[in-house]
Amino acid sequence: MSKRYLIYGAVSLVFVAICVIRLGYGGKEGAEETGDISAHIGGDFSLTDQDGNVFNLENHRGKIVLLFFGYLSCPDVCPMMLSKLTQVYSALPLERDRILTVFVSVDRERDTPEDIKVYLEYFNINALGSTGSKEEMHTLVQLYKATYKKVDTESAMGYLFNHTDSLYVIDPDGMVRYLIHTEDKKEKIIKAIKSILNENSLTHKTALETGKIVYVTKCMTCHGATGAGDGPTADKVSPKPRNFMSGEFKFTSGPPGSLPTDQDLFKVITEGSIGTAMPSWAALSERERWAVIEYIKSLAPERWKKEKK
Amino acid sequence: MARDRNSDFRRRPFIAALSVAAAFALSTGAVFAQEEGVSVKDAWVRAVPPSQKITAAYMVIENYIGAEMTLESASSDIADKTEIHQMSSRDGMMTMQMMKTVTIASRTKVTLKPGGIHLMLIGLKEPIRSGEIIPIRLNFGDGQVVVTEARVQE
Q1: Residue A150 near residue A161 (C-beta atoms within 8 A)
Q2: Contact: A162, B93; criterion CB under 8 Å
């Protein structure tokens, strides 16, 4: 009898142990899958880019930002990550305008903005490079829990750097969502980007809502309530405001008559259109400008569906 | 003493013959290395922007003999200096260290690859282009020399 209890006891113990192990493992796997990382890494930062312009992360809401630390004389890991990004960008041709790589050089002594520019152009990615001022770097490193350290060596190169090898994948809301490491394959980066973009198509609804508010308050008086280009002031301007319902646009980076890319629309909204009544809407946040693009596209849904840009 | 020097003098033709033999042996060292000692394959050099003065080379070094081999140094005509470096990742931090030698244990291979051990070509004399073939000379501890042809690629 007591032997029997012992067996029952042992069997149930094993069962409980298996459950615990499975649960533990399952939990871990779940965390790995979503790739969510603790909320305390990341935040808005600003840097001066290779063209001398100020970059503020908060102005790039709506985009996926890939933040990476490196230096130009890094012969192995840095070009490896950047050429991986070249492949990521070419695997996502439709999304490339929405992905911005930010390469931060930790070698302020040797890397000039001109060198960074030439270096990044080579990789054919939508990238911004910066050495950052001492203060900018300090803030950035603190926020992203990154590290870099100059190390003197016997090498003919003089000094080298130890640096954070992570590529930070920052979502359109400015949150760090994934950390990609040197040994990770390009597929992991593509998967991360796609999953963020998919979520964002869920929030496509939100973009449309925001976009509609922007449209009604800023665009409607000229472009009309339905987007037909027949707003109350439409008769007073020449040329006539664009009719969004026809889905025909003047400015496109593609062949004449083709639909503009989101980036093309963004440019017109941001800069305005010389010789027309279309003003610059640079005062709107980038997020509002991207949102209104979604709304404008929803005014001629068939046309955008047929010729998906 | 004088006699000794004299005998040295007389031995000179023999020494000369020896040196010729030694030079011959050295020049064919590369061939021996391919067949019996070490073999180097799959060598490639990372294509870099034309402004870059630095790149890395990777390859597989196989040691067929019953003793360990050491890669002592390397050189290439395209760079001022070639060094052996090793990348390692610890706690999310990438570190690069210079290595004096690489040891290839008996009947094993060592792969020089991105994110690991690599040859660093420092001070490129001119821009390198994808598809180009770059000879790299590897000097091993026992005097063997292997010249491998590395292809420039992305």
Answers
A1: yes
A2: yes
The answer to whether the beta carbons of residues B101 and B119 sit under 8 Å apart is: no
pLDDT tens track for A172-215: 889 999 999 988 999 999 999 999 988 766 567 778 888 999 99
Task: Give B60's strand partners.
Answer: B41, B111
Report the relative pairing of strands B93-99 and B79-90 from DSSP bridges: antiparallel
Element spanning B45, H or E: strand B38-46
Q: What is the largest CA-CA distance in chain A?
A: 99
- Going by C-alpha positions, the residue among A267, A253, A233 that lies closest to residue A309 is A253
* C-alpha dihedral (A185, A132, A92, A201), degrees to nearest 10: 110
Q: Answer for the pair A158, A130: CB distance below 8 angstroms, yes or no.
A: no
Please state the ipTM of this predicted complex.
Answer: 0.71
The three-class DSSP label of residue A103 is strand
Q: Are B87 and A181 within 8 A, CB to CB? A: no
Provide DSSP, A134-202. HHHHHHHHHHTT--EEEEE-SSTT-EEEEEE-PEEEE-TTS-EEEEE-TTS-HHHHHHHHHHHHHHHHH
Chain B nearest-CA distance from A47, in A, is: 22
Instruction: Please indicate whether, in this complex, the C-beta atoms of B114 and A181 are within 8 angstroms of each other.
Output: no
* Distance of residue A119 Cα from the nearest chain B Cα, in angstroms: 6
In A, minimum Cα distance to B86 occurs at A76
- Contact at 8 Å (CB) between B55 and A75? yes
Find chain A residues with C-beta within 8 A of B98's C-beta: 153-155
Cβ atoms B124, B54 nearer than 8 A: yes
Name the packing angle between helices A204-214 and A286-297 (round to 10°).
100
CB contact under 8 A, B48 and A163: no
Instruction: Find residue A180's DSSP bridge partners.
Output: A167
User: B102-141: per-residue pLDDT in tens?
Assistant: 999 999 999 999 989 999 999 999 999 999 999 999 999 9
How large is the C-alpha radius of gyration of chain B?
Answer: 20
How far is residue A226's CA from residue A296's CA, in Å, rounded to a whole number? Answer: 10
